[in-house]
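Section 5.1 Outputs to date
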Amino acid sequence: MKLKISLLSALIGTASIVFAQNGKSEKQEIAHEMQKSMVDELLKPWYPAAIDTADGGFLSTFTFDFKPTGNQDKMIVTQARHVWSNSKAAELFPGKKYYMKGARHGFEFLRDKLWDKQYGGFYIFTDKQGNPKQRGFAPKEAYGNSFAIYALAAYYQASGDTSALNLAKQGFWWLEKHAHDPVYKGYYQHMQRDGTPIVRDATIKSTAETGYKDQNSSIHLLESFTELYGVWPDKLLKTRLQEMLLLVRDKITNDKGNLILFFQPDWTPVSYRDSSLAVYKQHHSLDHISYGHNVETAYLMLEASHALGIEDDAKTLQVGKKMVDDALDNGWDNKVGGFYDEGYYFKDKPGLTITEDTKNWWAQAEGLNTLLIMAAKYPQDKHQYFDKFKTLWQYTQTYLIDHEHGDWYQGGIDKQPQYKTALKGQIWKGTYHTFRALMNCVMQLDPDKIPPIAPKKVKFVKATGTLTWQASTDNKRVLGYNIYSNGKRIGFTPLNYFMAGKEVKGKLTVQAIDLAGNQSVLSK
């Protein structure tokens, strides 16, 4: 099986045909707008300014006009996402050396400060200097560890630094040993420092999520395993990736196309629909419809399915479409555009009730990417995905992007004008959602369909286990190389050599991949 680096590469060819009917100039104009905004209004304000040259890692908190503020405590999720963003930016813009420098800098903080040297796994919080600090629901969480794996895999893909890949593997194995549920499958979210899962008991408040399994950690484990599998085709990792895809698609997503938020360990849903209105309001954080997560997960499922090499995965596409359609039918602002934050089906009210009509920044970012994917797959659908995409992009430019100071407001200022002077950066807000969305949208709107030249002069030195080849060329830029042994993928590297090992058997071949996911033919 030949694995493509991204779901987007599978859709771009279709998208180029679909969007032609809307006019080539329009498509390229939007791509140009997004590219410019991505560079000038997102990346430039953040990097390299966010690199903490004093204590390592990245600064987390910035005012609306991008001045560092507060105590600058550090969380694994924020730090990992900045590593991921810098790694991807380094691939896109190799001339800007501070991206790779920032990615390396952030990786060292993950390795030296956030990884628990005694028990393994990544701490959730530290102070600015990297000293562990108690905050949140538990000392260790699968959610935070998933983003560490995600970042480390991306940094390896960009740099070829095998120490980062090895740490990603350790993170995966740590989760496997401590958080994976061999009986009911999936992963426990909350753990003690030594990795022992926290069991929910009478001492835990009913409003707390502690001890529950949940959709949020599950969808991001799916995401991180997809990223890791792209650079490390391990058999167990593939099994867990398949397991998470089926759990998210078939159990966590309900018949309406909505994600159930929390579960008992045996995946019994946590629901307050049959409770009184007062009880529901008290527990609404545990049981509501999150339209942003729905549209995001539609993309993450399709990306995972594609990484697994599942051809024409009709079931996953069907569920993903249902998730997006429900969000458009029930959670979309038909006046100015944008996805609402929350809704709910109350037992004593007909239909759906929007309970939070605000529009947070990350949901709109994820919506842009997913709407384009659906437009490519269903050009004639009644939901008019491409028109919705254009409406959402206009909404984003009008109510979310701060054209004066840079970055996006935390929420649309049509609903929350106070966000004009709110924090631009905080431990839950960096560049991950927005950068990924803009990058993916540009690749879909202005696709590169030319594959790289196949690697030449492939040579294997058995004495050292080293495989070398002449670097490939591409019309834009080669991302890296997949390594195959007798047609089975055994690794990836962005370099032009690979330590295949002395024990490797069979014919070794190499395949070049570019930034758009186009693949060369295999080396001869």
